Amino acid sequence: MSEISKAYEPQAVEEKWYARWLEDRCFAADPASPKPAYSIVIPPPNVTGMLTLGHVLNNTIQDILARRARMLGREVLWLPGTDHAGIATQTVVERKLRKEEGKTRRDLGREAFLERVLEWKEKHGGIIIAQLKKLGCTCDWARERFTMDADYSRQVQEVFVKLYNKGLIYRGKRMVNWCPVSLTALSDEEVIMKPQNGSLYHMKYELVEHPGQFLEIATTRPETLMGDTAVAVHPHDERYKHLIGSHVWRPFPKAAIPIIGDEHIDPTFGTGVLKVTPAHDKADFEIGQRHGLEVIDVFHPNATLNELAGPEFAGMDRFAARKAAVEKLREMGLMVREEPYQNNVGYSERADVPIEPRLSEQWFLKYPQVDKSLEAVNSGIVKFRPERWAHVYDHWMQNIQDWCISRQLWWGHRIPVWYRNDNPACVHVDTTAPADPENWTQEEDVLDTWFSSWLWPFATMDAETRAKFYPTADLVTGPDIIFFWVARMIMAGYEFTGQEPFANVFFTGLIRDMSGRKMSKSLGNSPDPLDLIAKYGADGIRFGLLRIAPQGQDIRFDEKQVEEGRNFANKLWNAARFRQMHGPSAPEVNLEGLPLSSYSLDILSKLQALIVNVNAAYDEYRFNEVAQSLYDFFWSEYCDNYVEAAKTEIFSEDPSAKASALAVMDFVLSHFLRLLQPFMPHLAAELWATFGFQAPQHGREHLMYAAWPNADLLAGIAPQRLASGSERAASVYQAVRLARNLRAEVRIPSNKKARFHLKPQPEWVAQESETFARLINAESVGLQPDYEPARGEPGVLTPLGELYLPLEGLVDASAELERIKKEIAKVEAELVTVRKKLSNSNFVQNAPAAVVDEHRKREIDWSEKLAQLQKMEQTLGA
RNA sequence: GCGAGCUUAGCUCAGUGGUAGAGCGGCAGAUUUACAUUCUGUUGGUCGGGGGUUCAAAUCCCUCAGCUCGCACCA
Asked: Which overall architecture, per CATH, does domain A10-147+454-513 show?
């Protein structure tokens, strides 16, 4: 190892280890294992998708959970796979077809088109899976599933048939959200409301019964007026109620349409008169139903106008028609005015165009198990983290609407329904076609992709796997798919397995760019994670991202953070190099009977505290806290403090002292690498192997199967021994900080040896003075209990005693005095604060005894310090 | 309109009742034999405003403001 580069080079190491893990089948889950099960199903990414930073965050968390569970002795299943992403994938292939061959899918026909989609899938389908492997994910790849697998498809159809037979699935002509680009219905969840700057047009319709009199109407959509079949007013509206029952002229195509009264109308909005277009607005449709109005659809499916709109509009796009209709109204003298107006318009999530409310024949699902699913989250059977997302879930579940599950696409699960040719009302609903297929026609529509993904936690498992691993333990996903996926999975779990699909749902934050914008392809503000992996290593990006990913808060991504992850990896690498340079490591260390320095006792205590902290953080899914604890411990405690202090022993003439320090390093490193493994698996494995540490505790040789460190690992060392070691070490480290500061104040460069004098305070100072001297780069530290500093000699009060830095020649006594005075002022301020508290009888009476005692101790400490500082001040010649 | 979250150092963020923290940046110094992807020192905050509860508030409550995000929606 010492011949290897001074800097850690992750690429080769990461590839090597991933290949070895695969070769040794480290990720395989065994349903026959006697070990307790731990399982996660991956949120299936789109089969043709590419890895985003969101995926990196999400899957790293899953990997961390899976890796830790293995070390805790669980039989782990992390089940991977992809979904077929109906609209997204079909759209991509259609676009390609149009661009390269000038054809539509209908030119090819259903079967030939689906072959093209499959070709596309074969070509691009493996990419994201390969990318997850680069990240180090320990999915059981042999179990990779796809929502269009034959077996999975069969289960989707079975579920459809079951729900149909229960009467929960029905077909009906309803108003749905229609995407005029994808030419399919969408569920309510796939529609995004966006504010639009448009106009509110005031126009007037002539009263049929009172020629020459007009009714003024405000609308944002004049292009639909050709489909108006009524105008409506509030039944109690004094301005208009006398007109109810009479008629107005629809200007074009000219027709008399009734004036009706309906409670839905808000008299305070616009003119208080609503044009009613039942074919093109959800609310209007309902009004139409209540009043038995005619429904006139003036649009083609692609949102161009049809013949019913009149010959001059037929074939015109809806937005061109808006202008044309306004122009025509103007010509007819019916346009009163146009005012700027902002309203919300529903957009198709995928195609990003305004959806059209459209009346069409669709399949709907009345959600099953709603009450039970609500209760599961409310009672904590399924625990949401952070808990606040339970409110969002609750609200949606309480206001749940039937789910439009049919899509007018070809790429997806075709609905298992056949209509009899001679009588379409007669249907055959089954997972198999009718025995006389020539007499039947299968439903053209396919199912919403989410209608397959909601079965994911169990439809991906065979019976044996299910018996061992279902329900799963944790689900890790984004809060943006609570409705799309999480809620539906809970309902499906209860409906089809009788069990909740998972015990915990951990919602990650969204990753944003530095200006707080969501990362998206169109904005181009999303860095390619593969580039980052190439630059910083998978371990670097994993650690860097997790360290700044607080529980459920959005994350502002900065490449700097990944750089820090890489730097941390390098720090570990070099700490390991340092250890390797001083001899081979022991595969296992026994601390008992070992002479241990104060610093060793201290770092061991800190290691123990680290394990406790890390476990507590894991219990609450606080991954950033785990990462931060690991970082602080290793960089500050181990490298900055311990390794530097231990150099006294490492370079000493006493072989037993050296052996002790090296053994402690081995002990700390072997435990630390285990704690680190879930976050930085490749580097941890590499170093583990380099050191030759043993790991067979759970039956496999790899670090990832080593036992998770036990928090009582120091049981063999007396607690008071640990405590006194830590106390000494803390005093020395504190004194070192003060001494270095003193050096800097008097401008002695950090590489220049300096001579110090110390009036030792604790009786043990002599035993630590060598290390102290090393840490402050002292030529010598003279221990002189009755040292009398020269007038104006710079000094500082440390936990080890008064420390002086005699300087030959020029010393600015007044500057030195100034420094001490500043210090005194600080201490006095602290004393004022603490004394104020202690003199408050309410505080002394009401505060817990421990807090009061602590303040009393604080007062004594500050007082002593003040006394000494004042003495130093006097010496300086105040 | 309803709901949620956020507001702490120049920047990104930890910190949920008991002495305000980290990283980065800035500034100063150092190639001290593991590491310049480094080390040492240092600068920097009346914890968004106001009010309240409490012996004690960044932390709990109320209120206001700003910024995000859901849900609903008047044409």
From this structure: 3-Layer(aba) Sandwich (3.40)
